[in-house]
Design goal:
45% of the residues lie in helices and 22% in strands. By secondary structure, the chain is of the alpha+beta class. The protein has two domains: 29-82; 87-170, Roll (PH-domain like), CATH 2.30.29. Strands 1-2-3-4 form a four-stranded antiparallel sheet. The protein starts with 23 loop residues before the first strand and ends with a helix. Keywords: Membrane, Transmembrane, Transmembrane helix.
Length: 172
């Protein structure tokens, strides 16, 4: 029986870290946005359980509150790591987007396949001064989104990707 090949090699040699690629990371303010969103999502059922606890006290309500607290603690530990794992890199012919800790994803978007580029920012994102860049390609299944960019960087990236996409498309 032969030994399996090692799953991890030196930095810059794995499928999620191509050699010679300099990754740009997103703003750490994305952690705040995701934690606030998670906190609001967990607070809604917690308030409902607290109202039930005041009106009709029962032991299982404490169990549900404890579970919600554990979920909030888990999010507080996990979200910063998830945000640090998000990165993108512009190469000569394509854009690389990677994310994930346990389930890693690397999306490669050739500039010539881009149809248009969106920049989005909801009320919370605008308050935290972050934006999302979404790439639309010929493939409907491509998940090419970069969350948590500074607005100036999102604008620069949008303009650069749009011009590179037009240049590559014109060459076809």
């Amino acid at each position: 029986m032969t030994d399996p090949a090692p799953e991890t090699g030196p930095r810059g040699t794995g499928p999620f870290d191509p050699p010679g690629v300099e990754w740009t990371h997103v703003s750490p303010r994305l952690v705040t946005a995701r934690l606030l969103s998670t906190g609001i999502t967990l607070a809604v059922p917690a308030v409902g359980v607290i109202v039930l606890l005041v009106l009709f006290p029962h032991w299982w309500q404490w169990l549900v509150l404890g579970l919600l607290a554990l979920l909030g603690l888990w999010a507080a530990v996990l979200v910063p790591r998830q945000v640090r794992a998000i990165g993108y890199a512009e190469r000569d012919d394509d854009l690389l987007i990677r994310q994930g800790i346990m389930f890693r994803t690397l999306v490669v978007v050739p500039y010539g396949r881009m149809q248009y580029v969106d920049v989005q920012a909801g009320p919370l994102a605008r308050k935290l001064r972050i934006a999302t860049v979404q790439l639309h390609t010929a493939s409907a299944s491509t998940d090419a989104t970069i969350d948590g960019l500074e607005p100036a960087e999102a604008e620069r990236l949008r303009d650069r990707l749009a011009s590179r996409g037009e240049a590559r498309l014109a060459g076809l």
